Amino acid sequence: MEALELVRLNLLSPMVLAFFLGVFARLIKSDLAFPEALYTALSIYLLFAIGFKGGVELSQTPLAQVALPALATLLLGLVRPLLAYPLARRFLRVSRPDAAALAAHYGSVSAVTFLAALTFAQATGGRPEGFMPSLVALLEIPGLVLALLLAKRGSRRMGEALREVLTGKSVVLLLGGLVIGVLSGEEGMARVKAFFADPFQGALTLFLLDLGMVAASRLSALRQVGFRLVLYGVGLALLHGAFGVYLGHLAGLSPAGSAVLGAMAASASYIAAPAAVRIALPEANPSLYLAASLAVTFPFNLILGIPLYHALAGLLGG
Q1: Phi and psi (nearest 5°) for 298?
Q2: Furthest C-alpha separation in the chain
Q3: Mean pLDDT, to the nearest integer, of 159-176?
Q4: 32: left (phi over 0), alpha (psi -120 to 50) or beta
Q5: Residue 244: what pLDDT?
Q6: What was the pLDDT predicted at 81?
Q7: How many other C-beta atoms lie within 10 A of the C-beta of residue 318?
Q8: What's the 3-state SS for 87-135?
Q9: CA separation (Å) from 249 to 58, 177, 195, 230?
Q10: DSSP three-state, residue 267
Q11: Is residue 154 predicted with pLDDT exceeding 60?
Q12: Where do runs of H (alpha helix) occur along the chain?
């Protein structure tokens, strides 16, 4: 499939169109708004479903098959914040707390970007490995913890920050769903498939509609920090994405699986990381890290990044 056709397919998916509907609604000052309870419910549903489906797939996957991709994912989780932190310090010239906050967001992962990449790969005829959702949980934790360590070396708040990361709803839902999926297996999935499998894409589309409105509300902050933040967000996405695709290829993933891993590596968190950063780094500027992750990296990956990682994986995989 040609690159332009991949971009067209991605842009015309219901999820991407819903995201831009949210942006449009905010720009025209529509009174459209999601109740906080609905946003919370959608987040819980999506995170648990990701972990649960990953666990079901993992229960059927031999350890020898998933071991190398899991190691590659953990390596990504450690390398990404180590790149994001010094780049923020030198290129953006921000303080240590702001650089660590950015590293935490770019060291974690966006579950929605992962889902968009998974849907895109399947829509183009690819067959990503079934255990890919389980890698999201592996990528979520190391980057967050390492970024907080960079900022809080010797701080008394480190214990509180670690507790926030490890007991936060994202990690609990992802890992909890993963364990439940492993223990219950296909038999358990058959009993709840009507709720956790079929409505999943619809829930994700609604979630992206809300994210579009949030992203549009951060555009003013983006104008304040300047064009350097755009270069930072796009440059890191491309660098991390290419590295993720390459590591996936070395770990033996299929081209579709490598593309999805690349999209995961290219993403920036806006669910788990903000919660952890608020506790660990209260002095960090939220407009900076939310504008970078939500208004720059997320839409870039949704529009261009995912097709690019898919094309690169196709080149490497032959």
Answers
A1: -60, -55
A2: 53
A3: 72
A4: beta
A5: 96
A6: 92
A7: 5
A8: HHHHHHCCCHHHHHHHHHHHHCCCHHHHHHHHHHHHHCCCCCCCCHHHH
A9: 20, 27, 34, 28
A10: coil
A11: no
A12: 3-11, 14-27, 36-59, 63-87, 96-107, 111-123, 132-151, 158-167, 169-196, 200-217, 219-225, 227-250, 255-266, 272-280, 286-290, 298-300, 306-317
Tokens of 47: 């995170």
* pLDDT over 60 (residue 2): no
Cα distances from 229 to residues 4, 107, 225, 264, in angstroms, run 27, 16, 7, 20
Place of tokens 């967000």: 233
Let me know: does 317 contact 254? Beta carbons within 8 Å.
Answer: yes
Classify 136 as helix, strand or coil. Answer: helix
**Distance (Å, rounded) from C-alpha 47 to C-alpha 207?**
12
Output the six-digit token pair for 35.
């109740």
The token pair at 126 is 């690819």
Q: pLDDT tier at 267 (50, 70, 90 boundaries)?
A: very high
Closest alpha carbon to 137 in 87, 113, 173:
173
Count CA within 13 A, CB hemisphere, residue 211: 30
